[in-house]
UniProtKB/TrEMBL annotation:
Name of protein: Salicylate hydroxylase
FAD-binding domain mapped to chain residues: 293-361
Enzyme type, top EC level: oxidoreductase
A GO term for molecular function: salicylate 1-monooxygenase activity
Keyword match Acyltransferase: no
Xref: PANTHER family: MONOOXYGENASE, PUTATIVE (AFU_ORTHOLOGUE AFUA_6G14510)-RELATED
Keywords: Monooxygenase, Oxidoreductase
Entry keyword Zinc: no
Source organism, top-level taxon: Bacteria
Length: 409
């Protein structure tokens, strides 16, 4: 490392992980920091959806990146409970998150979350800048990016640490893994839609309603909107047929044998049918966990661990990743170490925890699979074994390096 040269860090993607990492490093005068983001600041591709972020992310952010935690909490609603019922109204589980977590999670709209994460780092992000190529030249990572407004291409070479926050379809992940990875499809269609709550809306905190293995999930988000994620089994590996996207098909999925849905399920069935044309469609899929297989290149968030969203841990783990990455970069700079060493150290601190989360998320998907029994499956989720794992998920967050026993500050 040349002592006179500032270490060059390039973050690709100002999504959840990339924005938080950029915020945690912004303003330092001992590094050269660039964040490349494909979309323009006005792009709201995800505006039509919402998400819940787990208590573990908020606990972790409060400890590592308190300003970001404060901004998120101020602009969201608390996630405090998890209720599971059948669409006929029979309640199977009513979990107070305070019994398995040290604090609440949050509920928010995607557009709101991206806007408030990107606002404080505006000066550090090149928007409309799309990574088109990455690789290694003379041992160091490089990237090529295209300005989507002008069409011009630029190259950044001699990168000391390249951070891939470019999401599930990450080009950098593909480079690190040596090619595209075939995802594992679980055989479940998951769709999402956001709509105004309207008068007398019976939906509030996070809850789910099952009819067989067809499931509705919904909660209220700020701005008086309801976020609803519906699901139903499909043959593994198959696409989502057009007739499955029609209001009549969707309505029948959730109508209980008794014929009369509960007020909440009835409200959601009607809303899903009315907003069918605005639905975002997806299939549950996951891939392998990989953080720092290449020195000087670090995968974070979905590019490191594409997982099923069943426990709301995708963005949540992206937050935990960001906290550890910022912690490790600060430590490397304080110790005068090359930041290229961060990728290996993040892998060592994160891989086991994230494998636990990926496996637990898949395990919790049991009630959504074809032929599942949601009653027996949900009752299992009220038992001590599942509760203990939830407590581990929500409480055992990564601590700052300086506070870990036996570790140098
Ligand atoms: C149906 C569904 C529901 C979900 N619900 C939840 C939930 O409730 N709670 C939860 O915690 N998680 C949820 N997730 C998961 C969550 O969406 C992701 O895990 C999370 O967004 C990952 O964050 P990230 O920072 O890795 O990537 P992202 O937030 O996806 O950000 C990636 C960024 O990289 C940019 N980018 C991509 N390619 C390039 C390029 N070539 N050049 C420059 N920039 C680029 C993108 O524009 C984007 O800004 C859900 C996912 C799905 C599919």
């Amino acid at each position: 490392m040349n002592a006179a040269k500032k270490q060059r860090i390039v973050v690709v993607g100002a999504g959840i992980a990339g924005s938080l990492i950029t915020a945690g490093l912004a303003g330092r005068d001992d590094i050269e920091l660039t964040c490349l983001e494909r979309v323009s600041p006005l792009d709201h591709a995800e505006a039509g959806t919402g998400l819940n972020i787990g208590p573990n992310a908020m606990k972790c952010l409060k400890l590592h990146l308190p300003a970001s935690a404060e901004a998120i909490i101020a602009n969201s609603l608390p996630w405090q409970s998890w209720q599971v019922s059948l669409t006929d109204g029979r309640v199977l589980m009513d979990l107070d998150l305070a019994t398995v977590a040290d604090n609440a999670g949050i509920r928010i709209r995607w557009a709101e979350l991206y806007a408030l994460l990107r606002e404080p780092i505006r000066e550090h992000v090149r928007f409309s800048a799309e990574l088109t190529q990455c690789g290694r030249a003379d041992g160091s990572p490089f990237v090529v990016w295209r300005d989507r407004a002008s069409g011009t291409e630029s190259r950044i070479e001699d990168i000391d640490l390249l951070i891939a926050g470019d999401g599930r379809y990450s080009q950098i992940r593909e480079f690190v893994l040596g090619g595209p990875e075939t995802p594992h499809f679980l055989g479940v269609c998951l769709y999402r839609v956001l709509f105004p709550a309207g008068p007398d809306c019976p939906i509030d905190d996070y809850a789910q309603w099952f009819n067989g293995s067809n499931r509705l999930l919904a909660f209220r988000v700020p701005g008086d909107f309801i976020y609803c994620a519906g699901s139903f089994p499909i043959p593994p590996g198959s696409g989502i047929a057009e007739d499955m996207k029609q209001p009549a098909f969707l309505g029948e999925l959730y109508r209980p044998a008794s014929g009369t849905p509960s007020p909440q399920a009835g409200y959601l069935i009607e809303a899903v049918q009315r907003h069918a044309e605005r639905i975002h469609w997806a299939r549950l899929q996951e891939g392998s966990v990989a953080y720092g297989r290449e020195p000087g290149i670090l995968l974070v968030g979905d590019s490191a661990h594409p997982m099923v969203p069943t426990l709301g841990q995708g963005a949540t783990q992206a937050c935990e990743d960001a906290c550890v990455v910022v912690d490790e970069i600060r430590a490397a700079l304080a110790e005068g170490r090359p930041v290229a060493t961060v990728s290996e150290r993040v892998e060592a601190r994160r891989a086991d925890r994230v494998r636990f989360v990926v496996d637990f998320s898949r395990e919790a998907t049991d009630t959504m699979l074809a032929g599942a029994d949601p009653v027996a499956g949900t009752i299992r989720k009220t038992e001590p074994a599942f509760r203990q794992k939830l407590a581990q998920l929500y409480r055992d967050i990564p601590l700052p390096a300086s506070s870990r026993v036996g570790e140098p500050a």
